[in-house]
């Protein structure tokens, strides 16, 4: 499964900086493919603060995270980037004078150059540290999101966590599941007050079983088919609840993951680059935005934008060997109409 594509520049990360890199590459007639672990573009702006205003984007006295991403996407659109979302770049290998990226969805992206705009790493769910977890994840017994609510009809479901996702899914799944248990470390939930009241009422009516204060302790089953979840109090008293599914809702975190294993120069989980080209120690691999570091680096969106321009100009001779690049302003060149 997965797609096989060839492009000029493969961009890892669809955060604000990766999106602007599409524009900068496009202005130099370089096509791009953008890959992100999240299902949506926007990186931290989308995942962590869509409604928070940002005050230091030039020419925008205030713009919230989601609005900035919408504008960056529109600015990139005329260059028709291919977005491969919801998949993580796992592998990087060199092929003659090109590079090939492999994703968790089985895609193969061949490119003349790579721009790593991976922020603090790929977003993914926080996983509970339980023995045997990978087997139950692979079989779908443990899931971190509910893609199809119907999958849980008539099933015994354990939901772990104390935020909005845990509370909202408990309220929703109790309607169709055979049994729902909510596991939380403390009596207080960090969710919309109205939903918390509804959950308490449902628990009082016996529609949801509350396991408080408990945390996840283990999984029971044959390694793929789950039969129960073991819970423990902070004092170590355990009990097992019968279950077909476990849904841990512990939020998102970022991890550098595979990028750390590609032989790139690293400094405290950041990729070291030459400041004027953003090139890494590997020829044709550049890093920009939060993930890139050099003396004087500022982790700001505006700095990432300028790095996108520098990387695109540095890459141009690889994509168009022997062709002189005459510097032009965007106004004299014109942008194709989307
Ligand atoms: P990110 O936004 O982190 O995006 C990187 C993307 O790469 C992610 O979507 C990730 O899933 C993806 N990725 C990583 N590894 C892989 C992989 N292997 N495969 C596939 N995808 C991968 N900055 C400002 O300038 N002004 C502000 O006011 C401001 N306020 C902030 C407020 C908060 C609460 C936070 C958390 C940050 C704030 N920042 C602010 C910082 C700003 O958000 C970051 O500098 C910016 O998001 C960096 O952009 P980026 O594109 O480099 O990386």
From TrEMBL:
PANTHER family noted in UniProt: THIOREDOXIN REDUCTASE 1-RELATED-RELATED
Keywords for this protein: FAD, Flavoprotein, NADP, Oxidoreductase
Binding site for FAD: 36, 44, 49, 89, 123, 290, 331
Catalytic activity, as annotated: 2 reduced [2Fe-2S]-[ferredoxin] + NADP(+) + H(+) = 2 oxidized [2Fe-2S]-[ferredoxin] + NADPH
Protein name: Ferredoxin--NADP reductase
Chain ranges of the FAD/NAD(P)-binding domain: 8-297
Essential cofactor(s): FAD
Similarity comment text for this entry: Belongs to the ferredoxin--NADP reductase type 2 family.
Co-factor: note: Binds 1 FAD per subunit.
């Amino acid at each position: 499964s997965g797609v096989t594509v060839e492009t000029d520049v493969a961009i890892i990360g669809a955060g604000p900086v990766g999106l602007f890199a599409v524009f900068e590459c496009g202005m130099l007639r370089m096509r791009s493919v953008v890959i992100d672990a999240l299902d949506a573009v926007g990186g931290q702006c989308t995942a962590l603060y869509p409604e928070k205003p940002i005050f230091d984007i030039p020419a925008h006295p205030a713009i919230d995270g989601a609005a900035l991403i919408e504008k960056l996407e529109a600015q990139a659109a005329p260059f028709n980037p291919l977005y491969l979302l919801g998949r993580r770049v796992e592998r990087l290998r060199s092929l003659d004078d090109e590079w090939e990226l492999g994703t968790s969805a089985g895609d193969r992206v061949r490119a003349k150059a790579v721009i790593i705009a991976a922020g603090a790493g790929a977003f993914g769910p926080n996983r509970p540290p339980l023995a045997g977890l990978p087997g139950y994840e692979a079989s779908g017994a443990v899931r971190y999101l509910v893609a199809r609510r119907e999958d849980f009809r008539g099933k015994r479901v354990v939901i772990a966590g104390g935020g909005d996702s845990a509370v909202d899914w408990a309220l929703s799944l109790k309607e169709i599941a055979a049994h729902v248990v909510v596991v939380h470390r403390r009596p207080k939930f960090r969710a919309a007050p109205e939903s918390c009241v509804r959950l308490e009422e449902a628990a009082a009516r016996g529609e949801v079983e509350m396991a408080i204060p408990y945390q996840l302790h283990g999984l029971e089953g044959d390694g793929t088919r789950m039969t129960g979840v073991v819970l423990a109090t902070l004092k170590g008293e355990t009990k097992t609840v019968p279950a077909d599914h476990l849904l841990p809702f512990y939020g998102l975190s970022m991890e550098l993951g595979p990028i750390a294993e590609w032989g790139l120069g690293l400094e405290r989980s950041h990729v070291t680059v030459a400041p004027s080209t953003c090139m890494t120690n590997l020829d044709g691999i550049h890093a920009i935005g939060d993930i890139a570091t050099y003396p004087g680096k500022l982790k700001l969106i505006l700095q990432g934008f300028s790095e996108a321009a520098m990387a695109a100009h540095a890459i141009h001779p690889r994509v168009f060997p022997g062709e002189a690049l005459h510097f032009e302003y965007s106004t004299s060149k014109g942008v194709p109409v989307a």
